[in-house]
């Protein structure tokens, strides 16, 4: 890819790209299993990795092999100075300006471009897809147990306690290494806050006769999960207009789930499918209908997404996305449903391939 573009190297400032490229993971950040580092990928497929060498044990060295040269971060400028006269790609939107300044000082030619790991990372390998399926089986077991528990015992518990109980159930799987993001567990009016994050110090008690929205995910050694369910707790029933809103959200999820479309379609063209049932009732939601998901990496994996913005990265086979329509009435209630899906081949025609989605999530509504 670099050689075809006439480039000698690319700066990789994103630890998730480096983790994917070298198949390494770390624990430097909450929720995201990466090691903080930088790297230079060269056109000859060798890599200069900049990380505290003391953290690299014999097993990691053996895994990295001879094509990866490990340096201390302080050596970065010295290595960049060897790139005199070379053409180096970097993404100015994501790469610290120090790299561009240093390379200019050694008279390297700068070529603006995107991270070459992004789209290959988005197309999952057979092993990664198998890991996704295994993780969702474990995740589904934990969530089924959680839904049973929360319907029987959730009312009167705090939202933070709800989150803690779900994480404890997930952690019973040996391959679960933690949550993939801060669990959103909102009861009543808090369910209308799209990115609500309860803590033990600041949360509410789960109400009866109200919706409880729980958006959560797990990091497993083989995959990353993200799933949302909204349940009604209490002896009563929701008002009729709330039932209608929930039905529209579910219809939106089903519409996107059942889509068939030409390979190479952009995600933003499919986003309206998740909204159409809501639009017919004069309703909508103020977030994307879905995003890419990494493989034991970021739960929000750039650049894929179902959004209203014209994101121009096309959809191909073996990508993993979320499907998450919702509706939010500020100060009153909110609801969202979310599954993960894999893009699969639907059929081939003389004019090209068509794709469909296959749901990975194994959790009832």
UniProtKB/TrEMBL annotation:
GO molecular function per UniProt: metal ion binding; metalloaminopeptidase activity
Gene Ontology CC annotations of this record: cytoplasm
Peptidase M24 domain boundaries: 131-341
Coiled coil start-end: none
SUPFAM superfamilies, per database record: Creatinase/aminopeptidase (SSF55920)
Pfam families: Creatinase_N_2, Peptidase_M24
CDD domains from the UniProt entry: APP
Sorted UniProt keywords: Aminopeptidase, Hydrolase, Manganese, Metal-binding, Protease
Name of the protein this chain belongs to: Xaa-Pro aminopeptidase
Species the sequence originates in: Acetobacter malorum
């Amino acid at each position: 890819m670099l050689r075809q573009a006439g480039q000698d190297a690319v700066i990789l400032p994103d630890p998730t790209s480096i983790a994917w490229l070298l198949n390494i993971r770390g624990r430097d950040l909450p929720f995201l299993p990466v090691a903080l580092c930088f790297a230079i990928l060269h056109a000859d497929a060798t890599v200069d990795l900049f990380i505290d060498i003391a953290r690299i044990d014999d097993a990691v060295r053996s895994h990295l092999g001879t094509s990866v040269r490990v340096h201390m971060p302080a050596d970065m400028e010295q290595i960049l100075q060897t790139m005199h006269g070379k053409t180096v790609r970097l993404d100015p939107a994501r790469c610290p300006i120090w790299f561009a300044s240093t390379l200019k000082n050694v008279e390297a030619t700068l070529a603006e471009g995107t991270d070459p790991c992004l789209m290959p990372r988005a197309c999952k390998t057979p092993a990664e897809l198998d890991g996704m399926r295994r993780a969702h089986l474990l995740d589904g077991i934990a969530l089924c147990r959680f839904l049973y528990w929360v319907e029987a015992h959730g009312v009167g518990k705090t939202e933070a306690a709800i989150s803690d109980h779900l994480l404890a159930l997930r952690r019973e799987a040996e391959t679960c290494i933690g949550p993939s993001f801060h669990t959103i567990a909102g009861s009543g009016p808090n369910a209308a806050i799209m990115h609500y994050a309860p803590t033990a110090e600041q949360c509410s008690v789960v109400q009866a006769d109200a919706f409880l929205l729980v958006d959560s995910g797990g990091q497993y050694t083989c995959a990353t999960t993200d799933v949302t369910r909204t349940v009604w707790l209490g002896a009563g029933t929701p008002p009729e207009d709330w039932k209608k809103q929930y039905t529209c959200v579910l219809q939106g999820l089903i519409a996107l789930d059942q889509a068939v479309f030409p390979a190479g379609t952009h995600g933003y063209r499919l986003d309206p499918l998740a909204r159409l049932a809501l639009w017919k009732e004069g309703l909508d939601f103020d977030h994307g209908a879905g995003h890419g998901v990494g493989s034991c990496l970021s739960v929000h994996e750039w650049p894929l997404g179902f959004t209203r913005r014209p994101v121009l990265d096309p959809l191909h086979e073996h990508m993993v996305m979320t499907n998450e329509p919702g509706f939010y009435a500020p100060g009153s209630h909110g609801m969202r449903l979310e599954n993960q899906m894999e893009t699969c081949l639907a059929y081939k025609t003389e004019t090209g391939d068509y794709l469909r989605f296959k749901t990975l999530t194994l959790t009832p509504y």
